[in-house]
Amino acid sequence: MQQSLCRISGNPLIPLIDFGDQPLGNGFLNSTDFEREYFYNMSVGYCQESYMFQLIDQPSPQQMFHANYAFYSSTSKSMEKHFKAFSDSLKDSKYLSTVDPFVIELGCNDGIMLKNFVSSGIRHLGIEPSLNVAKAANSLGVKTISEFFTEECANRIVNEHGQADAFLAANVMCHIPDINDVVRGIKILLKPTGVVMFEDPYLGDVIEKNSYDQIYDEHVYLFSALSIQNLFKDYGLELINVIPQKTHGGSLRYVLAHKGAYTVDSSVDEIISKELRQGLDKAETFEMFKKRVQKSKSDLINLLTTLKGQGKRIVGYAATSKSTTILNYCGIGPDLIEYISDTTPIKHGTFSPGMHIPVRPYEFFKSNPPDYAVLFAWNHAEEIMAKEQEFIASGGKWITHVPEVKVH
Ligand code: SAH
Ligand code: TMP
Known about the structure:
The protein has about 400 residues and is of the alpha/beta class. The chain contains 14 helices and 17 strands. The strands form three sheets. It has a seven-stranded mixed β-sheet with strand order 6-5-4-7-8-11-10. S-adenosyl-L-homocysteine binds next to loops.
């Protein structure tokens, strides 16, 4: 059913971009399942009162997060390092009590962040609805319960474990449609001196870099400091710090606490002023974004069609959920992209959602290098470029689409 009201304010959304029918971003599938593949209309809208950029319609959480969830966080070495540094910054901060601190992480996936607390003997709890990745976390000694976080779940945790010093989340808050319920849960869970620290892909970067592939089923919201400050203030929680991150092509880490518990860092006012200058409070800004998205689509189709016409072999590098938006919006299938190379075993032998491009193991890419590789994991470019010297040396070229379609 089409949802056209803002999930925060309840006001009608201003419709912005229609990306057409889209499958699940992480819905890699077998050929026997092509016939019953699920599609929904992916459009985005904006609310001028809550400042929230959001999907109008979204598949149910149970359709996206389940016992066969295809995304394992630890496939990226740079993300391992990132979460080690994130954990260290909390351990070194004033926020953890000296006596028996307790850390909670929402969407802990395979334990990529919390394992750093296991090794320090810090009491922790992960909440992870996708059972396969939750099991992977538990097998590392990360105490994880497999369920969707709700206010009711928060009450149970407080009764069993007490309140938390820190409530962490990375790339998950923006996944949860009933975010009001989550914030109510956080309010209950947080000690009077506790902090919330979470990070998600940043709307400001998406607009600046034209990285429209950050829009897919799981990302029901693209947050800004404006929208987060507004969302949490209604629950007596205050934005006290913001820290830009390079991850996922540009993210923002938000630090929040009970109102008045800590002084507000100057970074908050600075980023809010920057967002107002960038026009993140105005629907017109997103109208301009729409035009750039349409140009990116035609540029990519033209480039791939031209190269294919010249007899070049083109493959995709990394079967990311972001690539699902690009491929389906641009209508790019196996006629243009031969296969997509990926390092995640669960994706091997499957086909990309919607456009059904075969997904092959990375070893296949090494033994069958193409003329051109479309870098779908552009957010991991540094890590990938470092390990693909051989591809370049043998004459291979990269195609990127962020911030514009380009051959390297
Ligand atoms: N934090 C990890 C994983 C991000 S993927 C990282 O940054 O790499 C998002 C994760 O959130 C998935 O593992 C998904 O199962 C989980 N998730 C989705 N909805 C959730 C909810 N309501 N409560 C807790 N976790 C959720
Ligand atoms: P992400 O962009 O959502 O983090 O997804 C990363 C995907 O890219 C995941 O399926 C693993 C894949 N990948 C590779 O195939 N090779 C790589 O070098 C990296 C970093 C990721």
